[in-house]
Write a structure and sequence with these properties.
There is one protein chain. With 451 residues, this protein is mostly helical. It has one domain. Helix content is 75%, strand content 0%. The chain contains 21 helices and no strands. The N and C termini lie far apart (50 Å).
């Protein structure tokens, strides 16, 4: 790597950090919906793969550092992964300690990053010799993954029952496009279908709003009043090893380690499971909540990093909920990346390490200090000046554009159809992981049904 390339990696990491610091603080942003489209656009523009990886790693770290802020300040999760921490953050807020919640969460996130990176590369090295064996059973693994994630979800029977019908919908649209000559026979439309799943809940809600009776029944709220203390600033240089107690530090590291090893499982599921387990033995409500949110935030960061890095470095196949969701463009973004030619085949382990370290270091150095010192002031600015609807509209526009690029005007309607079905399934309790696994396994499922 030369100086120019390193400069590009740093610049990309800085850009990702600034962008996803704001997005992370905005309430209700879904990780897949905000990470996947932007990463995909960067891949399709032809940027250097190592630069894209630096951008993505910085985006993950910055997003996970900041999406806990609205939880502590307003009791509103900044992302899906922050939702399990709401209850404990509200306990600290009721005891007049929202600033403590912020500092504990972002410090736990830093610990999670520091643990996940070496563990991910070590585990990837252990798995690497078996990559060809795993690759030869990729279709079966995708189907197995869909079934496993369905069984792990709360609405397991609905999730299981949706697998075959959703696969038929996906392959049915592909055969329609082949039949009318929109795309060449055998060319799978993938990217736009993937994005259709990510915006499913949004599209479902938008279509519902077209129904006057539904609109009339929706609850109306006045402006939400959020009180903060602008003068409550952290004194000195922020240091996660001083902010966290010995117990919090130890358990954050342990849960992050376990979360890295369980990269193939749902990040939300293991966050709730391990976070509640490690804090279950503490009786004092403030100490219990502090321990829970610090370990949970470390775990979410570790789960996202390991879920990206281990499949990417060791296998080249998106065999984790994170890899098949937010990080999917790093594995499969035709015509630039495919399952047979992606970052796994392009970058060496040395380049993976440098891209990861630069992305993570830039995000932590720029974001951690600012968040600990000025979290509430930044949160007030975002709540007042950055409309959530504007960000949703931006990502929705990107999806429509990429749908047209994939297969023309008809594919915009096709993507809306997939989004409607995906949104309906999501509302019934079928999570993103199951739907993304079905997207990958759809050709194999139809092949099994038509033998």
């Amino acid at each position: 790597m030369d100086f120019v390339l390193i400069s590009q990696m740093v610049a990309a990491a800085v850009a990702a950090t600034l962008l996803y610091t704001l997005i992370g603080i905005a309430p209700g942003t879904d990780e897949t919906a905000v990470l996947a489209p932007v990463t995909l656009v960067l891949v399709l523009t032809g940027l250097e793969p190592i630069v894209i990886l630096s951008f993505f790693i910085a985006a993950i770290v910055a997003k996970k550092l900041t999406d806990s802020i609205p939880v502590a300040v307003a009791g509103i999760p900044g992302g899906v992964m922050a939702a399990p921490m709401v209850e404990h953050a509200l306990v600290l807020k009721e005891h007049g300690r929202p600033e403590l919640a912020i500092r504990k969460m972002v410090s736990g996130s830093v610990i999670g990053t520091m643990v996940a990176i070496p563990v991910s590369f070590l585990f990837a090295r252990i798995l690497a010799p078996y990559s060809e064996v795993v690759g030869s059973y990729a279709n079966q693994l995708f189907l197995f993954g869909a079934i496993l994630l369905a069984l792990m979800s709360k609405q397991r029977w609905i999730a299981l029952a949706s697998i075959v019908p959703f696969a038929i919908l996906i392959q049915g649209l592909r055969h329609l496009y082949w039949g009318v000559g929109i795309v060449p026979q055998g060319t799978n439309v993938f990217v736009s279908f993937f994005l259709g799943i990510t915006i499913g809940p949004v599209v479902m809600t938008l279509f519902e709003l077209l129904n006057g009776k539904v609109r009339e029944k929706l609850p109306r709220y006045d402006k939400k009043l959020i009180t903060t203390d602008r003068n409550n600033q952290y004194q000195g240089i922020p240091n996660p090893f001083k902010i966290l107690t010995t117990q919090e530090l130890s358990l954050s590291a342990v849960t992050s380690f376990l979360g890295s090893l369980l990269f193939f499982m749902s990040p939300v599921g293991i966050t709730i499971l391990l976070g509640e387990f490690v804090s279950g033995f503490v009786k004092d409500p403030v100490k219990k909540s502090s321990l829970a949110i610090s370990s949970m935030d470390g775990l979410t960061n570790a789960a996202y990093l390991s879920g990206t890095l281990i499949p990417l470095v060791a296998l080249g196949l998106p065999l984790s909920p994170v890899a098949i969701g937010p990080a999917n463009a790093l594995f499969n973004a035709p015509p630039v990346f495919t399952e047979d030619y992606n970052l796994h085949h392009i970058l060496s382990t040395y380049e993976f390490v440098w891209a990861t370290l630069i992305g993570a270091a830039v995000a932590i150095l720029l974001t951690y200090f600012v968040i600990v010192k000025y979290a509430e002031q930044i949160c007030i600015f975002v709540f007042k000046k950055v409309p959530h609807e504007a960000m949703i509209g931006l990502f929705f526009g990107l999806v429509v554009l990429l749908a047209y690029m994939d297969a023309g005007w008809i594919n915009i309607a096709g993507v809306m159809l997939i989004a409607l079905v995906a949104g309906f399934l999501h509302r019934l309790g079928v999570n993103y992981g199951v739907q993304f696994m079905v997207l990958y396994a759809a050709p194999y499922i139809i092949q099994l049904l038509t033998r």
